[in-house]
Amino acid sequence: MTTDASLIDVALRGWKTNIDRADKLFSSMSEKELQEQIAPGKNRRIYLWGHLTSINDALIPLLGFGERLHPELDSFVSEPDHSAPDLISAKELKRVWDEINARLAAEFARLSPAEWAQKHASVSAEDFAREPHRNRFAILLGRTSHLAYHLGQANLAKE
Amino acid sequence: MTTDASLIDVALRGWKTNIDRADKLFSSMSEKELQEQIAPGKNRRIYLWGHLTSINDALIPLLGFGERLHPELDSFVSEPDHSAPDLISAKELKRVWDEINARLAAEFARLSPAEWAQKHASVSAEDFAREPHRNRFAILLGRTSHLAYHLGQANLAKE
Predict the structure, then answer these.
(1) Which of B42, B111, B133 is the mutation pick for testing A, counting most A CBs within 10 A?
(2) Got the DSSP string for A22-74?
(3) Which option is the CATH number for B3-158: 3.90.1150.10, 1.10.1670.10, 1.20.120.450, 1.10.1240.10?
């Protein structure tokens, strides 16, 4: 394996580890547990799960793979928990979460190292010429950290 | 910049972003705020800061840079908060945190992409031959996620 392919492999493993942890955590919870807040007055767990699902869905256009599969989940990002309507059941959220993650895994596997180093959709060609670190790989790593950030919160009751 | 150097650059920026966020968060807190629990019955903020500092210190031998600077902080990893003694003041922790992070930044900047793809110190040559993803880069990404995980918890009171 070349060095660049090895670096991508490691990053994709890190992404998958965090997705699997979130999947195990949220999928194992009852509807009642998912409705509980992670700490008094804070987001409900189902909101965090919906938030992570919606962020993952938004990766599809951001990384140039096509259109979002579930734009109806956008209020999990655009609105805070207390004002977000209960859009989706836990069962349906699990189905959509799996669907989006499977699509991302398939698309990720098709990209070459050089394609990972290309610009993402939210940066202009001019800005990218000055700031070549604003590439697809940066989005992958940033979203992995974002997953871990909320996983730390969702796991809080267990620590 | 070659593709592999670009991928490393992005990962180091992600590390620095998370270090800077943690630094800003913890350094701005009063001694009293640092003694507060992140949620009822959970770790104190100063414990999380000490934990992250000790984990960073342990990166020095793990990545082959030399010996730990502050092995005395190990109880922030080996012991849970409620049994860990108050080893260090906030002021001293800030000094040590900065010292360790500066050392890591200097060492990170010296590694070539090929060196990032080399094995870390906790995997044998035999295991690494079978599992080449157990390299320095995997440690960098894993510790970045670990930082983000606890940052999500430490930030909880603000969300």
Answers:
(1) B133
(2) HHHHHHTS-HHHHHSBSSTTS-BHHHHHHHHHHHHHHHHHHTTS-S-S-GGGG
(3) 1.20.120.450
Instruction: Tally Cβ neighbours within 10 Å of residue B111.
Output: 19
Q: Which of A149, A150, A151, A155 to mutate against chain B (most B CBs within 10 Å)?
A: A149
pLDDT digits (tens, 9 = 90+) for B46-66: 999 999 999 999 999 999 999
For chain A, domain boundaries: 3-158
How many whole angstroms separate alpha carbon B58 and alpha carbon B69?
A: 9
> ipTM of this predicted complex?
0.95
Q: Which residues of chain B lie closer than 8 angstroms to A146, CB-CB?
A: 148
- Judge contact between B153 and B48, C-beta under 8 A: yes
Distance from B106 to chain A by nearest Cα, in Å? 20
Q: Do A3 and B39 touch (CB under 8 A)?
A: no
The whole-model pTM stands at 0.95
Average pLDDT on B93-116 reads 97
- Could you give the 3-state DSSP secondary structure of residue B146? helix
Task: Give CA–CA dist A132/A120, Å, rounded.
Answer: 10
Hey, which residues 40-99 in chain A have their CB within 8 Å of chain B? 40, 42-43
